[in-house]
Amino acid sequence: MNDQSEYVPPKIWTWDKENGGEFASINRPTAGAQSEKELQVGKHPLQLYSLGTPNGVKVTIMLEELLELGHDGAEYDAWLVNIGEGDQFGSGFVSANPNSKIPAMMDHTTTPPTRIFESGAILLYLAEKFGAMTPSDPARRAECLSWLMWQMGSAPFLGGGFGHFYNYAPYKMEYPINRYAMEVKRQLDVLDQHLAENNNMCGDEYTIADIAIWPWYGGVILNDSYGAAEFLDAASYENVVRWAHEIAERPAVRRGRIVNKARGPLEEQLRERHDASDFENRTQDKLEPAAE
Ligand SMILES: N[C@@H](CCC(=O)N[C@@H](CS)C(=O)NCC(=O)O)C(=O)O
Question: Hey, CA dihedral for 183, 188, 194, 200, is it positive or negative?
Fold first, then answer.
């Protein structure tokens, strides 16, 4: 296929299973459960069903930060949802998230258990439940929630737009890569100008806004996502670079970012987490090669 040839849309779109790309086998134009599969439930009040992607690690970082602050009620079981194998379409997962995307969480301290899906909603739910990681002053809280929602609205252009066409599409196309590179660089400049005046996204305080934004934009800056740091001239966003490195060094971030991770170096994978000691007890020889 030639990216210069013009696509003439048919009168009615139909699903072409052969459209290629890394996620071709799991993407489909319908919603709902495709198989019967109950969710596993562990011993802790919070049950997380996720994968160590940028959306997934927002929640595991948040939970590890809460535990670091001494909120024992934030103990959690993190179950691996292998989206490459279609786990997100199992009946149990769909009842936790009708949108069939990780992360999804169940809070078993309520009767019946409360389901929460969408990573931004999970961050906010946890912040409110524990009274942490979000300012209480109304003006500062408004700023924090504004940046949280900025992330939810902006990252699809980075992941679904730029990341998809730069890294996952079956072949490289100039038009979408150009369009999304332009938008991602604009977003990085938004962050860079803001972080020139602020230590973190909401002033000095480290909040759920930082936790939401870091996995996506820190991932690009630290070259963890798409191998695009050079292409996007990530080093030129000096304030984002400073912020990304500072957050990467936080103990809770170092733990949270490896939970439910099933790709990359084996020493950076803790596929499931059921106890705080799992981090120490993790040994490389216990891990099998990553299932892609
Ligand atoms: N807006 C959602 C996005 C979640 C999302 O896109 N999750 C991806 C992995 S990062 C997923 O589960 N994809 C599986 C699929 O599309 O079938 C959130 O922030 O929670």
Answer: positive
Query: Hey, which of 101, 151, 260, 263 would you mutate to test ligand 1's pocket, going by the most ligand atoms within 8 Å of its Cβ?
Result: 101
Q: When comparing pLDDT for 20 and 122, which is higher? A: 122
| Mean of the per-residue pLDDT values of the chain | 93
Identity of residue 153: G
Contact 73, 45 (CB under 8 A): yes
DSSP SS3 for 114: strand
49-59 pLDDT, tens digit each: 999 999 999 99
CA of 90 to the centre of ligand 1 (A): 15
Number of domains in the chain: 1
88 lines ligand 1 (CB under 6 A): yes
What's the whole-model pTM score?
Answer: 0.94
Q: For residue 214, what is the domain's CATH number?
A: 1.20.1050.10
Q: What is the pLDDT of residues 132-179, one digit of tens each?
A: 999 999 999 999 999 999 999 999 999 999 999 999 999 999 999 999
Candidate of 55, 85, 97, 211 to mutate for ligand 1, largest count of ligand atoms within 8 Å of Cβ: 55
Residue 192 identity (one-letter amino acid): D
Q: How far is CA 2 from the centre of its chain?
A: 33
Q: Which residues make beta-bridge pairs with 47?
A: 77, 106
> Is 232 inside a domain boundary?
yes
- Selection from 270, 148, 146, 152 nearest residue 211 by Cα: 148
Mention every residue, 6+ apart, whose C-beta is less than 8 A from residue 181: 162, 166, 231, 232
Full domain range(s) for residue 145: 138-255
Whether residue 55 lies inside any domain: the answer is no
| Closest to 177 in 3D by CA, of 153, 157, 199 | 157
